[in-house]
Amino acid sequence: MGLTLLTACKKDKEETPETVTTEDTIATPLTLSFGNKMYREKSKLPGKEPVTYVSIDVPEAVGEGPAADSINNKLFHVVRSIVYFGEKPTNAKSYKELMDSFIGSYDSFKKQYPDEDLPWEAKIKGTIDYQNDSIINIKLNNYMFTGGAHGYEGNRSLLFDAKTGQSLTRKDIFKDEKGFTALAEKKFREKFKIPAGKNINATGLFFPNDKFILPEAIFFTEDGLLLYYNAVEVGSFADGTKELLIPYSEATPYLK
Question: Which residues neighbour 122 within 8 Å (Cβ) at sequence distance 6 or greater?
Fold first, then answer.
């Protein structure tokens, strides 16, 4: 797997209240390019500001062949797995249906409990954080609040084959995941000062079964692989996120 970073021009976009496709594109192999889609919806129930709302900004792949559809479908399904209220995600077939479902859940809740004044929030911001001739890495930052003491913010890493648009798993990235995990644990212990010979949770972390694991989110960056543990993934909410950067000079032997 090559790790040569393609240079690309990215421009900040102003938010607008309706769906917008930007004209700026980022070139990728096989005529694949990216615009940006913005979706906005809010509750229309009478009341004071702020009101319950949904804000979704995601890259949109455009190009010939199935690659663009593969990326766009994966993005939608991941967003759908985040933006919902209840025991399981909805069966929404579009971003509009997804937003309507979330707003509808709030409206029903508000009618049942009219004294509840806190508005709900659902925010998704997708960015192309890394790309080369082999990989496209999209970061999905998400924030959800549907009542309670606080909301939850997290980042997800979506990896795609730059030529086919197919979603990549760890098995597609690592040729020696076990070896890489051992390297990551060593560097994690060094950074977060976990004494040698002590269990990984000795300093108050919550790794499952007291065993080091790689995070759900692994990002490709210009300088190396970023291991990103979201809040409450391996620690308490108060501990916040934990990050560990492993330079390519150390990571490359374990990559395909």
Answer: 53, 54, 55, 56, 82, 83, 99, 102, 143, 144, 145
